[in-house]
Structure formats: C-alpha cells, structure tokens
Amino acid sequence: MTSAWSRRTFLATSAVLTAAAGGALALAAPRASATASDDAYAALRATWTALILGEGFSPTAEPFKSRLTALGAQARGWRDTLAPADGSLWPDAVYADPDPDTDPESYGFSAKMAESFIRLNTMAQAYRQQGTGLTGDSALRTAIVTGLEHLNSQVYRAGQVRYGNWYSWQIGAPQALLDVCVLMYDALTPAQLGRYCAAVDHFVPDSAVASYTGTSTGANRVDLCRVLALRGVVGGSAAKIALARDALSPVFPLVTKGDGLYADGSFIQHTTVPYTGSYGSVMLGGLGLLFALLKGTSWEVTDPKRQVVFDAVENAWAPFLYNGLVMDSVAGRAISRGEVDDHRRGHPILASIVLLGRGASAAENTRWRSLVKGWAQRDYYSPPLSNPSLSLTGLARLKSVLDDTSLTPLPEPEGHHLFPDMARATHRRPGWAAALSMADKRITYYETGNGENLRGWHTGSGMLYWWGDTFANGQYSDAFWPTVDPYRLPGTTASRKVLANGAGGDWGAAVPDVNWVGGVTDRKRAAVGQYLKGLSSTLLAKKSWFFLDDTVVCLGAGIRCQDGTAVETTVDNRNLGPVGNAPFTVDGSAKPVTRPWSATLTGASWAHLGGHGGYVFPGGANVRALRENRSGRWRDINTGGSTETLTRAYLTLWVDHGQNPADGSYAYQLLPGASEQRTAARAADTGWLGVLANTDDQQGVSVPSLGLTAVNFWFGGTVGPLVADAPCSVMVTEHADGTATVCVSDPMRARTSLTLTWNRAVSSVLSKPSTVTTATTGTSLRLVFGDLSGTRGATQTVKVRLP
Questions:
Q1: Which of 107, 212, 270, 347 is flagged as catalytic?
Q2: Which of 41, 212, 279, 487 is catalytic?
Q3: In the structure, what pLDDT confidence band is assigned to residue 36 with cuts at 50, 70 and 90?
Q4: How far apart are CA 411 and CA 404, in angstroms?
C-alpha cells in the first residue's frame, strides 16, 4: 500500500478543524512523519468532515442540541436493530432482488440497498458529532464497520451486476458510503478502504462522465463528480479528483436544449422538466460543496465559466424564492413528497447559496448573505431553524447568517421574470408574488415517475400560484397537493375527463404539440400567453395573463372540447386550512361559511375572500362557487406517501364552460391582498381596464392610467392601436417623461420577418435591437423585424420619443 493510503496525519488536521467547528470529535492522537501527499488527502478529508458535519455551532445551544440528541436516538435505533442476514442488513431493508431487472419492484430493492448505506452514514455522523450521546461509542463504531463489510461482501462490491434504479448504484449508495469512509477513516483498514473504493470504481467508472449525455447531465453530473472526487480523497487518487473537477466543466456553460441552465434563467432536468427547485437545488448544493472542498488545493475549480453558476443565483434561483419557500412550479414531482413542502425545499437552497458564496467574489458573497437573511427572517410560516429536514450543516450556515449583525437583510426582489425556455413566469410586487406554469413542445405537462406525482396532470395548464408578504405563505404547503381537486388547479382550464394515475407517461414524456407559449416583459410588467392543448384530451384554448402593478388580468377564449365532459376554468382554489372560515363576499353580500356550500354567482361583478384577496369580473360573469372540505392521503399521489387521511377546507371559484364547449371564454382580474373595499372600487371603475380583444385570434388589454396596451396576437390582425402581420406578443407603455417602450417577442420562434405598427404619433427612435431592420416614425410607428426565430422567444425592446 502506498503512502496515499496513510492515515497518519488525518487526525492532526481533523482535530484542528473540528475544534474550530465546535462539533466534530477528534478520535485519537495524530501519528508522526507524514508525506506531502498524505497531508493533501488528510486536509481534504478534514475539509469534507467539516462540510458534512457543520462548523461554527455549539452542540449545547439550540436548535443544535435537540437536533444532535435526535441524531443520536436515530443512530441508536439503527445500531440496536442491525441484523446482518443474507439479503439484508436490517430486517425492514431487504435489498436482495429475487428477479433482478429494472422494473418497479427492482427499483424498490435497489433503493433499500442505498438506504442501508444512508443509515450507516447517520450512525457515522452520530459517532463523530458531539452531543449525540453516542460520540466515540465503541459499539456504534463496531456496528458501522460490520455494516460496511456486510454490504460490501453481499451487494455493493466489484463484479456485482446492478439491478433496479441506476441512481441507487451510482449516486445514492456511493455518496453515503464515501461519507462514511471519510468520517470513519481511522477505524478502517487499508484493505477495507481498498475494497470499498474498488466497488465505487465498478459502479461509477471514469466512463460515467466521459460524455455529457443521458444520466450524466445537470444535477446528476454534479452528483457523479462528488462521488469521483470523494473516491479520490478516500483512495488517495489525484487522477480521480482531477477527473471530478474537470468533469464539472460541461455543467457550467449555458445550454440551448436539454438539461442545464439557459440564458433566460431556466433550469431543465430530464430534458423537459423545469426543475430549479428540486434537481436545481441538488446541483447548487453539490457545486457549493465541491467548490469548497477543492478551494485552495491543487485541484481548485478555476474554470472561468463557473461564473455562470454564480450569476444564476440571482437570475435563476432568486426569482423562485419567496419568504424562504421555493415555488412548486419548478419542483417537478417533488411536490408529491409530503415530508418536504415548498418551505422545507427552499431552506436547503438558502443554505447552498451561503456555501456557494465562499467561492464567489466578496461583493457577491455579501449580497447573497443579505438576501438569504431577508428570506430566512421573513419565513414566518416555517422558520428555517425549525425545519426538521434541514441538515445540521444547513442549520449552521443559516444561523451564521441570521446572527451576523453586519448584514442588512435585503427585501424581496421585485419585478417580472419570464422564462420562455421552460414555459414559466414569476411576478413579484410589493406585498405579493405570483408564478405561472405552462407547457409547450419543449416542456412537459408535468412529471411523474417512481410512483410520484401521480395526479399532477394539469399543473402545466396555466396554473397560477400566488402568495402574500405576510399571509398565505402556507397556501401550497399545508397538505394542498393530496387534498386539492386535481381537475381544479388555480388558473387552469381543464376537461373533467377522468385521467388515470400517471397519465401521459413517466419522466415528462408527454409534451403538447404547441409552439405559441411565452410573451413579453419589460422586467416590471408582462403579457404572457399559452396555446393550450389538454393532456389526453381534445381540449383547446387560448389563455393570456397580463401581469400588472396590483393585479393579474386573466383572459381565455376559443375554448373547445369534445371529450363528452364538462370543461372548467378555475379562477382560484384557495386552501383555507383545517378550519376554513375565511369570509367570502360577492358584490357586497356575505356568503355562508358553512361547509358544504355552493352557489352560481349570476352576473357577479366582484368577489372577495378575507385574508387572501379579491377578484373582479369585467362586465359581470356567471361564476360557480364552492366551499367544501376535501380529504386525501399523500399515498393517493405518491406510492411511497403516508396513508394518513388529511382534511382541508377550500373555497373554489370557477367558470363552467359546459359540456363539449365550442367557443368558451372568460375574463377576470386577480388582486392579491386587496381589501374588500379596494376590490369593490376596482370593479366600479369600469374605465380602469379595457379588454380590447378576447377571441381565438387575439387577446389584449389597455390600462390608460398605466399608459399600457398589451396584446397577444395568436394570428396577425388589428387590436386597438396595434397592427401585426403575424403571430407575436406586444406590450407598449407610455411614460410620464414623454418616452415609450415597445416590447415585442416571437413566442413561436418561427418568424423570419414581422411588421408591427403602433398607430400613435412618434417623433424618434431612441434605441432598438439589431433584430429591427426598419423603424419608421411620424403619425405612427412602423417596426420591421428581421429573423426572430433565433431569439428563443426573448423580448425585443424598442424605446421611442413621443411628440
């Protein structure tokens, strides 16, 4: 065995670092006479120990004391029930597959194999951390080593043919195994470490990162690089660490298709799934760990393209973070995991941003910490330091930020972010935020897989989420997904045709054959549209949203379907919690708070839901209302979920388009956080909003007080003062300083030419993008655009001077 395997300096370095960490235990006195290579690998092991155990916290202070006690109790339970047998390490975690292949049953067996390593990792953390009640416990050490040997001899070894889920063999198991090897390094012999490394080499060979394709992209690629890097650290292989570092480089550049980060801030995984809040979180955390592990070493990540990741903190992640939660619109099938809601998914992202800041510039680090402090302080619904699923390291990082008196917490970033590459949008205004989920030929309706998110069918059918600054932050957190009517998701237009669990296929396989999805934004307001084709349905519809200062104007037209079932547009479906007594008023008349209650609101002008906001129906509308209790189980939407029955009260408003509609439509305003008085006043001000068009050909609005005209041209034509010769999205805003901005996009990504005329006197053009080939001013503005097909639906902004 070469000196690379030596453990003689591990404890010296570890003791210094863990003393500073205030947590991890030094196991024994250091040995003498280390070589330079010994020092390098020992230092890496010490760094990794601090990264996965946490640092800078007191084990006798809360929330750490309770968490360490719980960690010890969990580890004690695993130690006491350890029962090595043929095919299992614990009786409830059988990994032996009688018919090994890749069917769902085999997925379950491979998951139990990975889970066995994760349990050993929990035990190793309890052994190394102070305050667990098992710190340095000899029986626990023996149990951990016994478990490693058993799994290596039986299942995770060189030569074993894998079965079930590839992830269990290439990421889940080896990550946990290598963490244990680092934490228990002094308790393992060179021969044992050699066998464990050989097993990792077998399942995660260098070829796993040879090409940036398949399961080796995005977050998965970062996970694989973590495995390779730790394999090098544990096995003393400089080549493995260098390979891990170099294999990160394909993750950094912006992509134009498939998995990864896009120029508009989109993040895609599994080819068609917007995943900023789940796989994106994994990637962000994994990169933060690897950057920190290798910083200051000869393997430091120096690829200049890593700045793309740093820039993405505010371009890709921040738009989806609100008061500590990460929006469900970019969480994929993770929304069906009952143990981790939008807040609990958001907190690890905050902690990862803090960690990533250690590798960024001083200015970036300070700004990010200030953003995180604001998000964490404002999370009144689910305070991060009380998050039971947040790791000790995450807790320590967030507490360090909250306790940092030099940081001024930054407020929620305002503005509109449109993400054409993943058919998503977020809108953030003082007091509230909203998010929109759509689907097109590049983006799936929804993702199901591994028995998860079985009824997410309509989440891409124009679902409109919204939250308030000090209210409704638990709207989608409090058992929303297992109890909501999945055919009545807020904002969606859907057929009541009964769909089977998992309809459309696994892993985002089903995408609608539509091109016109997207819109324009000036970063403050936006016009967004979706040509909707229903999942496994004949439903067709044109849907538009105009995101303004205090409202979202929602229009729908051309709604037709031949499913033989009713078609509905859900104005909203608010989760009122277990009690559900929020007052509901329609045109000034209070409605019953008893459940169940339902009514048809004929000719309704406005409605208001106490503690939430208001709804205005221009010109009046016939709207259905329902207050009811709904019950469900997480198991209903996730085969691994709890079987406990949960009940929540809902207030639902929807437009019933009838059975087999031929040309249905709707129009309403959503006013988040508005009082009853403000809602009534908006409804009474009939001149505030002008609906210029709401047809299958165009949808547009004008708001004179904002100087705004916005139109989604599904086909060319004339709407108000705007004339377009082809499909496009347009938003014009006149400003008080005598200028105006004209925002134009080609959501279909197909226009090789476009002519737009604004019938308004314009004296000069102040600026224009290169896509404008001709700009004619005078009694009207005539803009001729060249090829827009390569703009990826991005907004083209022209600034003009008015007479």
A1: 270
A2: 279
A3: low
A4: 17
Annotation says 416 is catalytic:
no
Nearest-10 Cα torsion for 122, 124, 130, 134: 90
Are 713 and 730 spatial neighbours (Cβ–Cβ below 8 Å)?
yes
User: Using DSSP, how many helices (H) and how many strands (E) does the chain show?
Assistant: 18, 33
Residues 421, 449, 505, 277: what is their CA dihedral angle, to the nearest 10 degrees? -20
Separation in Å, CA 740 to CA 610, 757, 803: 38, 14, 11
**Contact status, residue 730 vs residue 722, Cβ threshold 8 Å:** yes
In this structure, are strands 517-521 and 463-468 parallel, antiparallel, or unpaired?
unpaired
C-alpha triplet 73, 79, 84: angle, nearest 5°: 155
pLDDT digits (tens, 9 = 90+) for 248-296: 999 999 999 999 999 999 999 999 999 999 999 999 999 999 999 999 9
Pair of tokens at residue 95? 């990994």
DSSP string, 503-516: TT-STT----S---
Residue 636: helix, strand or coil by DSSP?
helix
Q: Which residue has the tokens 């995660």?
A: 204
- Per-residue pLDDT of 238-257, as tens digits, reads 999 999 999 999 999 999 99
- Tens of pLDDT, residue by residue over 90-123, are 999 999 999 999 988 999 999 999 999 999 999 9
Q: How far is Cα 261 from Cα 421, in angstroms, rounded to an integer? A: 10
Nearest to 773 by CA among 761, 759, 790, 785: 785
**Can you list the alpha helix ranges (DSSP code H) found in 379-424?**
392-402
The catalytic residue among 220, 315, 450, 453 is: 220
Q: pLDDT tens digit string along 570-628?
A: 999 999 999 999 999 999 999 999 999 999 999 999 999 999 999 999 999 999 999 99
For residue 37, pLDDT over 70 is answered with no
Q: Which residue has the tokens 């953390």?
A: 125
Separation CA 115–CA 661 (nearest Å) = 51
Q: Which residue bears the tokens 């023996």?
A: 142
202 catalytically annotated: no
220 is catalytic: yes
621 close to 667: Cβ distance less than 8 angstroms: yes
The string of DSSP codes covering 284-305 is HHHHHHHHHHHTTSTT----GG
User: What is the Cα 712 distance to its own chain's centre?
Assistant: 28
Q: Which of 174, 304, 311, 299 has the alpha carbon at shortest distance from 246?
A: 299
* SS3 state of residue 261: strand
Measured distance CA(137)–CA(157) in Å, rounded: 27
CA distance 633 to 646: 6
- Residues 605, 623: Cα–Cα separation, whole Å: 10
Which residues lie closer than 8 Å to 120 by C-beta, 6 or more apart? 78, 144, 147, 148, 151, 176, 177, 180
